C-alpha cells in the first residue's frame, strides 16, 4: 500500500465529513442524539452514585468475602434456574 493511497482515503473521509456537516437536518439530528445520550449518561451516573456508596460501606463492614457470600445464592439461582 503506497503513501498516496492512504492520503486519498483521507480525502474521501474528509469529503464525506464535509457533506455531513453541510446537511443541516443531519447535523441537528446528531446534536439532538448527542444531547440525549449526555442526559442519559448523567442520569445513570446519578443513579449509580448512591449504590456505589452503599457498596463501599458494605465492603468496609464485611470485606469482599462478605459481598461474595451475599451474592453467591443469587448467582447460583441464575446459573441453575429457579426450578431446581
Could you name the key traits of this structure?
single chain; mainly alpha; 2 helices
What is the element layout, followed by pairings?
Layout: H1 3-22, H2 24-80
Question: How does this model look, in words?
Answer:
With 84 residues, this protein is an all-alpha fold. It is 92% helix and 0% strand. The chain has 2 helices and no strands. It has helices spanning 3-22, 24-80. The longest helix is centred in the middle third of the chain and has 57 residues, at 24-80. It is elongated. It starts with a helix and ends with a helix. 0% of the residues are buried.
| Overall average pLDDT | 83
Number of helices: 2
Radius of gyration: 25 Å
Characterize the main sheet: none
The succession of helices and strands, N to C, reads HH
Give the structural class. mainly alpha
Question: Strand tally, please?
Answer: 0
Distance between the termini: 59 Å
The shape, in one word, is elongated
Low-confidence runs of at least 5 consecutive residues = none
> Which percent range describes the beta-strand content?
under 5%
Helix content: over 70%
Amino acid at each position: 500500500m503506497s503513501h498516496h493511497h492512504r492520503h486519498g482515503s483521507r480525502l474521501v473521509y474528509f469529503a464525506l465529513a464535509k457533506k455531513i456537516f453541510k446537511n443541516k437536518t443531519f447535523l441537528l439530528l446528531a446534536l439532538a442524539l448527542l444531547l440525549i445520550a449526555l442526559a442519559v449518561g448523567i442520569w445513570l451516573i446519578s443513579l449509580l452514585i448512591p449504590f456505589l456508596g452503599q457498596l463501599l460501606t458494605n465492603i468496609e463492614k464485611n470485606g469482599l468475602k462478605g459481598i461474595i457470600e451475599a451474592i453467591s445464592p443469587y448467582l447460583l439461582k441464575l446459573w441453575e434456574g429457579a426450578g431446581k
